[in-house]
Amino acid sequence: MQIYRISALSDNYIFLLFDVAQKNAAVVDPAEAAPVLKKLEELDATLVAIFNTHHHHDHVGGNRALLNRFPDAIVYAGVHDRGRIPGQSVELNAGDRVQFSDRTAEVFFVPGHTRGHIAYYFPPVANEPGELFCGDTLFSAGCGRLFEGTPAQMVNSLSQIRALPDNTRVWCAHEYTLKNLKFALTIEPHNPDLQARFAQVQAAKDQPTIPADLELEKRINPFLRWDDPKIQTAIGQTDAIATFATLREKRNQF
Length: 254
Ligand code: ZN
Ligand code: FE
Fold this sequence. Notes:
By secondary structure, this protein is of the alpha/beta class. Helices cover 33% and strands 25% of the residues. The longest helix is centred in the C-terminal third of the chain and has 14 residues, at 240-253. Fe (iii) ion binds at residues 56, 58-59, 136, 173-174.
């Protein structure tokens, strides 16, 4: 399974999964159809599936036009997004499995950004790392805003992600990394891993930073470290949920 990263709208990423032998493709969160259709043509590929993580327009905006061109494509999305996903054909629950090419993804229910948000996790095989498509749940050095969920829900969702193996590539749906790193440095100015990542991203401005490396995220992302005493001290909280909530609040104001 090859994965292509396609830039869309102002700062979205669409991910195209490609089965080289079958010339089949699947797409994760098509914000818009045009750049996907272009890539499919380039690859001479047939679109067989759309994997949506949540109902926001910048994740499903291309569904209709893609279905017009590929009417047999199956549209996967969460059961709690029923009625909010154009063309949805399968309603997924936590623990369900979906197949693409020779890989099988596990479905995680990760509410917080929205109430029906799901993520797709392909465990590692042979020489390939694990792949996580998490929509707007986790960003590099950040996390999604809480539009329809509570801090406690988001912490629970992010704990599921944090529990995944280190060798997981995180395919976040937006390029927010530089701003997230600047914010993270206001919380932890002396974290050497964070400083190094900031220097690297800053030096390679305009270069994509996605996929993120989960092993590194566990060290630099404050939104994965609500129970770390260093973060709690910096925030002035002792409770995990309160720490997370305060962090999120501060990021909203940043
Ligand atoms: Zn969203
Ligand atoms: Fe989004």
